Amino acid sequence: MTEMIGKLKEDALPGHESKLEPKPEWQPRYPGSGRLEGKVAIVTGGDSGIGRAVAALYAREGADIAIAYLLEDDDAAETKRIVEAEGRRAIAIRADLGSREACEQVVRETMDAFGRIDILVNNAGEQHPDKDITDITEEQLKRTFQTNIFAMFYLVQAARPHLKAGAAIINCTSVTMYQGSKELLDYSATKGAITAFTWSLSENLVGEGIRVNAVAPGPIWTPLNPCGGASPEKLEDFGKNTPMGRPGQPNEVAPSFLFLACEDASYMSGQVLHPNGGIIVNG
Question: What are 215's strand-pairing partners?
Answer without folding.
Answer: 172, 273
